[in-house]
Every structure is written in structure tokens, then in C-alpha cells.
Amino acid sequence: MRYEISDKLFGDSFAVPRVCEDYLAEAGEVELRVLLFAASRASFEDGELVAALSDFEESEVREALAFWRGAGLFSKKRGVKKAAKHETEKPTETPEVKIVSSRPNYTSFDLANAVEQQPDFKSLVDYAEGRLEKMLNRADLSLLYSFVDYLALPVDVVMLGIEACVKEGKKSLRYIEKLLIALVDDGITSYEDADAYFVRRAEYLSYEGRVRTMCGFGSRALTAAEKKLITAWKDEHKYTEEELVAAYEKMIAAINKPSISYMNKVLHTLRSAPAAATEDTHKTYDTESRFSRAVSRKKKTKTEEAE
Hints:
Layout: H1 29-39, E1 43-45, H2 46-52, H3 58-70, E2 74-81, E3 92-99, H4 108-117, H5 119-132, H6 138-148, H7 155-167, H8 173-185, H9 191-215, H10 224-236, H11 241-255, H12 260-272, H13 287-306
Helix pairs in contact: 1-3, 3-8, 4-5, 5-7, 6-8, 7-8, 7-9, 9-10, 11-12, 11-13
């Protein structure tokens, strides 16, 4: 069956730059929302974007913006915000984003010259090829060189980014670029700051991974709301694995399916519940064993549903 867009809708439409087509496979929900918002306006302030996508974390929106900037879709321009007549202060500058190409287009000569005359970049190329397990082609080299030239990041920071992504099972230079641009946007450019950032990121992903495994989410992408809750569990409430397992068990007993929002309510209830009776205060828990049983029950439930 052949489909086509209704003619009556073309009068109320907007264009998406063709360059975006090459990045759609790597774009997630928030990246696609940012693209549609941007394409419908062509020029906007970053505050407008964050407000329009308020159902996502601001950091996620800015990372998605960085993703499309890395694709050459956006560049930042400075706009002057006029002061009111009664104000005596100087006009303040507010960032404005326009859809224009931003990353330099390096020639083969530029890249060859960089490899031959910049030992640090040559070391980065060798490192990247080893960790990504591939020979870099011209497009790859151009992207890699933009990390140290256009983003002005030290080679050791780029190496940290590559290493972190490889450990996450992500070996795409586009994915690495997205992460590095987000670092620059957050003002993280030194080795020390980047190292601390990646340590925090690894801790969060490990925590999220335990929740994923327990709930049987597999590779399903978590929503912005789910990530926000899990981040709060780890950083704000500091829920232990024992508490997560206990909440999971109560959730399954109550609704027989995993739900991050429901589990969040159970966690708050458990934390605020009165202290257990005296005879239970010294009770010990084999957390690893309970976690394994929780995962096993999830697998058993899936098997029964399949049958």
C-alpha cells in the first residue's frame, strides 16, 4: 500500500535540513523533539527550547542541542537584549541559536598536516583506532580532529571521552562527539574536571543498570521522567540496593509489573515508614541474593507470559 501526506497539510508545514537524515538512526526522543522545535522556528533562544521541552531534564535538552550542533546543524550567535528605558545598565547579551553549519570542513591536506606535525593528535588517532577497533577514514579523522581544533579540548580529555564511551559499549564517533560537546557546553575542559565527570557518569550508569536488570527493561530507552527519578534515588535520596530490592518486591506484589513511577512511591513509603519492631532491628539481609531472586522472578514471569 502506498502512502502520501495529505495535500491540505502542506500549507502548514516546515522544512527539515537534509543533513539531519544521516543522524536520525542515532537520535533519541529528546533529539527528535529538539529537531522539530528548531526546524519549525529556524531561530530561537536556548531558554525557549528548555521551556518548550520542560518534560525533559534541562541537561538532556542541552545534550540534544549539542548533538545537533555536532552534526553541523546549529551554531550559537549572540543577540543583544535591549534594556528598558528606565534602566541605566548596559544591554545584556542572550544566546540565540540559528540553524547554520558550524563545524569546520577539513581538507585532506589539513588532516594529513595535523597527523604529521602534531604528535599529540597522531597519538590520539592511534588511541582512537585501537579503542574503537577500526581504521579511521577521512570523515572519521575530520570528526576526531574537530574535537581538538573546533572544540579546543585537550587530547587527554578526548581520550577520557573515548574510553568512557567504549566502556558503555558505544563506539560511534558521533556518540562520542555528542558527549564531548555537552562537556564543553557545561564548561568542563580540563582533565581533572572531565575525569570527575566521567566517574560520576559511570556511577550513575551502574546504578541505572542495576535498576534496569531488576525491572527487566533490557535495552529499552528510559524516558526523561524515569531517568530523573533514578537520578534522585542515587544522588538525593541515596537509596541502597537493599531498599531498591524491597521496593521492587512490594511493587510486583501489588501490580505484578515493573513501573519506575510506582516503585518511586514505594521507596518513599518505605523510607518514611516507622522503624521495625525491636526483634527485627538486627536482621541482616543478603542483598545480592534478594536481587538475584528478584531478577529470577522477572524472568519467570516473562516466560509464563510467553507461554
